[in-house]
Amino acid sequence: MTGDGTRAVRAGVPEGEPYAAPLPGPTFASHFHLPGDPAVATYAYGRQGNPSWTALEAGIAELEEAVGAVVFPSGMAATTAVLFGLLRPGDAAVLPSDGYQLLPRVRERLQGFGITVRTAPTGNDAQVAVIDDDTRVVWVETPSNPGLDVCDIRRLAEAAHAHGALLVVDNTLATPLGQRPLALGADLSIASGTKALNGHGDVLLGYVAARDPELLDAVRAWRTESGAILGPMEAWLAHRGIATLQLRVERQDANALAVARALRERPEVSGVRYPGLPDDPGHAVAARQMRHFGCVVSFTLPDREFADRFLGALRLVSDATSFGGVRSTAERRGRWGGDDVPEGFVRLSVGVEDAADLIADLNRALDVSSAGSRAT
């Protein structure tokens, strides 16, 4: 098998043809020439398929070691396609209680359709305990967003399968180069490709990858019927971005570890979490199943005011949501109101800048913020 860098550069790229572009440009078409039987047509109508999607999906499937993938216009579109496309009234689903902040809203909608939803914090024992024979889908994030807790994918896959349930892993933070859930026993790997997969902060994207083609067919049918389709330009941009994924992941991984270690030296900072730290609560499990630990570091500052001063004083790190981009960003997660975190909790997405420059910027901003605390 080729290395990750080669895989990323070649993912979904067709065999070269004389005088052709190495990566075909986006196909802008709402319909295609359609003689004869539509059932045998490669492409018929723009809501059903597009060559730009096909190429991107092939690349994602290669990286995820899947039989195939289905792309969507956002991570939430991919999430709802799996949950609403696979669950039926009377089914039960297990969701993380500490996951992405829109999951509680999804839970309410699922319950409105007669689906039982149980929640548990990320961590094997709690999640395994709520799986029973009524469970159809077990959904996990590992590492979780924003707390960076880690669960054992193999163990949860075994527990889910023992009850006839499917295990779905949100692989957004890890990326398919950092973690391959399907190889660890998961049935579906989903991600917001908006984040590290694209990595340039200019595309909204989601995807679902699977080991079972029938599951993919069900997810693809939801996309067609709901109209949750990705634009060809966005597909092309994301595919282009994958070529540098390995370079970005390795750089961000090293930078994040350096930043996490530096933050631990600051008296104003508490609760630093990063799965790559040897004494992080999730490190032992992460080290078994992850090849890279991601670009996100979380930590807590004394209070809301301190955190706001800190974010305002940064020069190389933008105050913005999302993560995984080449440019570092950070935000006080409590401002959204959807995460159970302290008011001073900060989620930092470490980019590809020079680590020494990032650490200097963080230290300077902490100095400024501490001086502001003494002044008041």
TrEMBL record:
The keyword Magnesium does not apply. Its cofactor is pyridoxal 5'-phosphate. Gene3D superfamilies: Aspartate Aminotransferase, domain 1, Type I PLP-dependent aspartate aminotransferase-like (Major domain). One of its GO terms (molecular function) is homocysteine desulfhydrase activity. Signal peptide: none annotated. GO terms for biological process: cysteine biosynthetic process via cystathionine; transsulfuration. It comes from the Bacteria. Keywords: Lyase, Pyridoxal phosphate. The keyword Lyase applies. GO terms for cellular component: cytoplasm. It is an enzyme of class 4 (lyase). Its EC number is 4.4.1.2. InterPro entries: Cys/Met-Metab_PyrdxlP-dep_enz, PyrdxlP-dep_Trfase, PyrdxlP-dep_Trfase_major, PyrdxlP-dep_Trfase_small. The modification N6-(pyridoxal phosphate)lysine is found at K195. Belongs to the trans-sulfuration enzymes family. NCBIfam families: PRK07582.1. This is homocysteine desulfhydrase.
